[in-house]
Amino acid sequence: MIVFDRVSVTYAGAASPVLSEVDLTIPEGEMCLVMGRTGSGKSTLLRAINGLVPHFSGGTLRGTVQVDGRKTSSHRPRDLADVVGFVGQDPLSGFVTDNVEDELAYAMESLGVAPSVMRKRVEETLDLLGLADLRGRPLAQLSGGQQQRVAIGSVLTTHPRVLVLDEPTSALDPLAAEDVLATMQRLVHDLGLTVVLAEHRLERVVQFVDRIVHVPGDGSPVVDGPPATMLAGTPIAPPVVELGRAAGWDPLPLTVRDARRRSVALRAELAVVPPPEHGPRVSGEVLATTRNLVLGYPRRPVLEDVSLTVSAGEVVALMGRNGAGKSTLLRGLVGLHRPQSGTIDSPRAGLVPQVPADLLYAASVRSECEMADRDADAPAGTTRALMDRLTDGIDPDTHPRDLSEGQKLTLALAIVLAQRPALLLLDEPTRGLDYTAKQNLVAILHDLVADGHGVVLATHDVELVAEVATRVVVLADGEVVADGAAREVVVSSPAFAPQVAKIMAPQPWLTARDVASALAASRR
Question: Locate the ABC transporter domain: which residues (predicted)?
């Protein structure tokens, strides 16, 4: 179905190709995961499948890419639209209509699908992706996760033979992500759809895929193989694999179910070992408060009667399903939303938004960093050093719009961190970040709270919460339904528990690192 024959891609001004001599064949009816570090070239590989590279991206493509017998060199993206459906990392940038139902129908209108068929497919897709309640809603008023589901639905309605997805679950809550991936798998198995997706949150997708393609991004060849083989030999691995390595299991488990079956002896060994405390830390001065807060859109409140206090030394994770009000609360705390009633007091807050490009205006990474240093009255090089600490290798002369979504996020994070806000607000801060960059972010957040700052992050990344959160606040339908220490809240929640907690239950372990440390100590 998809064939890469000695494909190399080099962008204008680049010293080396982003992809080099790629040979890859993906047959019909396979679900294929593309993994690699942030900025390694995953998005370039995906965009080469439907001709966006090089027809719209520029640069030079050598070699041949064929999809269903059509060469992308002679078929532009519009010539492949009936075969390949593509959803990028930023769904909002791809929308062309104003509301959900119109967006689902638009691509079919462009392809000349009969109106009676269009109506049927729209209804099927609304049900398939759980969008029926949102059919008439303006796209601009949807949460990031809801927008992501609409974007996927808008290409599914055309019934493509190949579906290409770039970070398809990055803004979805855990249950919605599982539903979407299970739907994709069902289409693969039942209809022979070929799905190629890039995803950093391997813990979500590994159990669904048939093959993994690793794009190393360091000049090494692109390699592919079965999930078990690929994850056994790479440092990029989900927590379930990390736990298997710590316990010495062979073969390594890929799913919670497999690991749970293997963990009987491990749980017995650690039954009398107390897991380490992840907080709450001793809190300092109050940095933000909300009292009886009502916030949202005209005639449609998103938050109802929310009262919350955040103090220095805390890392508060806001969790909840898509549309629960997490991003709205962050925007309220930074002053982007005016309360309809109630009060907000958070005078020293800085926000990294869910779409990091909203903070990027200059013509190069270098200029962005220099402007951020001046705005923050910080020593020259401060912002650049923060960005390099998160992920290195970003060319300072690159235009921000040419960065990957993960690289845009690291730049936006560095810009806000340079301001040293007393309260740092992060909206989906690991979207587009690989495991290494995520661990670097965790280290920075630990340093910030140790210095007396506070952090509030809205996230669906349960593994990040397990690593860094001292407190979890769960929102549902605009109300606070849980507020407590991270271990107490997430371990008891089937939806928000990290992989290690599910495997080790009822023992309250949160991370593979905690288990590895305990095993090392007990076996001395």
Answer: 4-243, 288-502
